[in-house]
């Protein structure tokens, strides 16, 4: 996971981005330009573009908060995180299987119900309130099906 470090008035705060890289060594903190993720990493250009967009957004948010007189690290983190709410995957999946059932796809409905039941059991085992789109990674799915 890549974090954005915000420093205002000597106080630091880490803000979680939704960008993930496989190894910490793939990240180049002392880069020239906007090439934070090394070029040999798959989709490095896309990831670097996402990080550049997040950085621009952070700067705009700080300018807005500073004009309002609330330019603190805590306010910056709250403002940035308020906009990064990940939708519920479970709600989407349940809505989708209901649509499949309503359209007469009974066999597909049964298959997808099985997957959703496994996801729900995984959620309960991990004591998660919900599974969001941001929570779904290859690592989560591989650990879920290793039983």
What can you tell me about this protein's structure?
The protein has helices at residues 44-67, 73-82, 89-102, 106-125, 138-144, and strands at residues 3-8, 11-16. The protein starts with a strand and ends with a helix. The chain is built from five helices and two strands. It has a two-stranded antiparallel ribbon. α1 packs across α2 and α3 (89-102) runs antiparallel to α4. It has two domains: 3-82, no CATH class; 89-144, no CATH class. The radius of gyration is 20 Å and the shape is elongated. With 147 residues, the chain is mostly helical.
Give the helix level as a range of percent: 40-55%
* CA-atom Rg in angstroms: 20 Å
- Round the mean pLDDT to the nearest integer and report it: 78
Largest sheet: 2 strands, antiparallel
Portion in beta strands: 5-15%
Order of helices and strands: EEHHHHH
Shape: elongated
Query: What is the quaternary state of this protein?
Result: single chain
- Structural class, from helix and strand content? mainly alpha
Number of helices: 5
Strand runs, count: 2
Number of domains: 2
Low-confidence stretches: none
Report how far the terminal alpha carbons are from each other.
26 Å
Strand order of the largest sheet: 1-2
SSE layout:
Elements: E1 3-8, E2 11-16, H1 44-67, H2 73-82, H3 89-102, H4 106-125, H5 138-144
Structure characteristics:
single chain; 147 residues; mainly alpha; two-stranded antiparallel sheet; 5 helices; 51% helix; elongated
Quick rundown:
By secondary structure, the protein is mainly alpha-helical. The protein is built from five helices and two strands.
